[in-house]
Amino acid sequence: MSKARGFSTLERFELKYHIPVSWADRIGELISPYCEEDHYSKITPGRFYWITNLYLDSPQWTFMGWKNAGLLDRFNMRIRTYGEHPDPKGVFHFEVKRKVNRISYKSRATLKGHNPSIIFDKTPADWPELSERDALYLKDFVYKTTLHNAKPRLLTQYKRRAWFGLTEDYSRVTIDTGMRFREENAFDYSVDPKYMHSTGLPRFFSPGCDAVLELKAPASQVPYWMIDLIKKMNLKLSGFSKFGNAVNEWKRVYENPSSFRTPFHSNLAGNFFKG
After folding, report:
1. Element (H, E) at 22
2. DSSP 8-state secondary structure symbol assigned to residue 128
3. Other CB atoms closer than 10 Å to residue 121's CB: what's the count?
4. End-to-end CA distance of the chain
């Protein structure tokens, strides 16, 4: 079993491919000798479970600007939880995702039983009980928000099916689909589907595709079975930024409301926005 499932820091390659979501079962069959399906995929009807992210950025979109400029060393910040309608006092992961050239570094601190706002409303001395490591990473998270004037900007969601590698310290396969978002300037994780805007748009995908396959592996070596999967499925390396696409749509929906009309794509994701 992978040693990195409860990671605090992680260094990895991330290879992204556009695929039809209908390929999910076939991919699962091909990697089954080397992977174990994620617990939440196992227990969720249809195998795809909801992930909800609150992205932080400055009023000037500093982190997005770094990405658009193609900086070789950049990061973004988010607070992740799970479920289409997250528990406001559930489990929240404060994550800084840094990218240096083609290698990704992700740090994570976990808060349980409290809304994330408590970390910003109280001093560290008054935070809920945390492990030493979680407290360290949360202090760094708060420092970065202060340094860059980063505040909640966007609440994003998508459905994921996932697998963990059985033999590597860390390897992971994920398929994401049904991307959507809304503006959020506080720490409200409530979701009403009619106010969510799709970012799983055809213009963001290769023709005939509606999902993103990600192969995540240690920076030192991509497992051989991932290479086999790439060859057998004839996968073509691509890219997809959930945060970036949501920012682009935000500019259309919120920044220029006078020119925005109800999107024709509101039901593109079909059943992935149900249940």
Report:
1. none
2. P
3. 11
4. 31
Query: Does the pLDDT value for residue 267 go beyond 70?
Result: no
pLDDT surpasses 70 at 260: no
Burial of 162 (0-12, 13-18, 19+ CB in 10 A): buried
Contact (Cβ atoms closer than 8 angstroms) between residue 134 and residue 145: no
Domain locations in the chain as residue ranges: 13-259
pLDDT band (50, 70, 90) for residue 9: low
CB 232 within 8 A of CB 136: no
Instruction: Give SS3 for 161.
Output: strand
CA distance 138 to 135: 5
Q: For the stretch 165-183, what's the b/e string if a residue is b when 16 or more beta carbons lie within 10 angstroms of its beta carbon? A: beebebbbbbbbbbbbbbe
| Placement of tokens 């409200």 in the chain | 188
Average pLDDT over residues 89-114: 93
What is the fold, at CATH topology level, of the domain defined by 13-259?
mRNA Triphosphatase Cet1; Chain A (3.20.100)
Computed over every residue of the chain, the mean pLDDT equals 89
The model's pTM is: 0.88
- Spatial contact of 9 and 170, defined as CB atoms under 8 Å apart: no
pLDDT digits (tens, 9 = 90+) for 77-101: 999 999 999 999 999 999 999 998 8
Please enumerate in sequence order all residues whose Cβ is within 8 A of that of 108, keeping only pairs 6 or more positions apart, or say none. 7, 8, 9, 10, 93, 94, 95, 137
| Contact (Cβ atoms closer than 8 angstroms) between residue 68 and residue 60 | no
